[in-house]
Amino acid sequence: FFDDYANTLILGNTMRFVSDALWVSREKLAFLVDATTAPVASIAPISSWIGFEVGLIQEQIDLLIASGEDLVGVSENAYLVFLETIPSRFYPIIMLFFQFFMIVARREFGSMLVAERRALDEHKLVRDDAKVLDDDAQSSMMPREGTPLKWWNGVIPIVIVIFLVLLAILLTGRTTAEELGLPLTAENIFGNGDSYASLMYGGVTTTLIA
User: Fold this and answer.
1) How high is the pLDDT of residue 72?
2) Distance of CA 114 to the CA centre of its chain
3) How many domains would you assign to the chain?
4) Which end of the chain is more exposed for a tag (fewer CB within 10 A), N or C?
């Protein structure tokens, strides 16, 4: 929830092996990852995207105040304005609701129905004409033959990478906020966090630990 890029990379790579074992098509996996990462990050009370968005809102509020506009009924606190807009964020709310609907109803539609039938009936995770770019990378992540399969070998690295990425976002965001002279609020820290560097730090460190 704390960063849309981190959500996509972590969730997609970790759940791919589970979805493959259950014969879930790659199209369905891609949709689930996309539909449950950005929407969550866009309405979560704290995330790097929300921090960036709150910064943009505050800039506009400051411009309105400087121009002498009367902000009747509008808070001067950008974070409160963001919270008030959550009920109007129709795409993320509807998309999350749609996920639950599909799970409960067990229904697929259109091209997704075709993809799921192909995966379940023919055991083909991707189309015959699909260009899969990560076969080598996926093969390199598989355990060696004879390696004991322990659940903690998967859970511990995931927990570590999530913790390290979140910690790195907090540290980089705090440093940037201090350099800019901004108050050390949650929105300023998350909004100024370096998502790319945080993902690199978390990924490399977790790889060394694993």
Assistant:
1) 72
2) 27
3) 1
4) C
pLDDT 10s digits, 69-80: 777 776 666 777
Between 130 and 88, the more confident residue is 88
Instruction: State the pTM of this model.
Output: 0.60
Q: Which residue has the tokens 């968005």?
A: 53
Nearest to 9 by CA among 174, 198, 208: 198
Q: Domain limits at 134?
A: 4-209
For residues 43 and 9, the model is more confident at 43
Percent of the chain exceeding pLDDT 90 equals 2
Backbone angles phi, psi at 146, to 5 degrees: 90, -5
Burial 29-65 (b: 16+ CB within 10 A, else e): bebbbbbbbbbbbbbbeebbbbbebbeebbeebeeee
Contact 42, 89 (CB under 8 A): yes
The CA radius of gyration of the chain, in Å to the nearest whole number, is 21
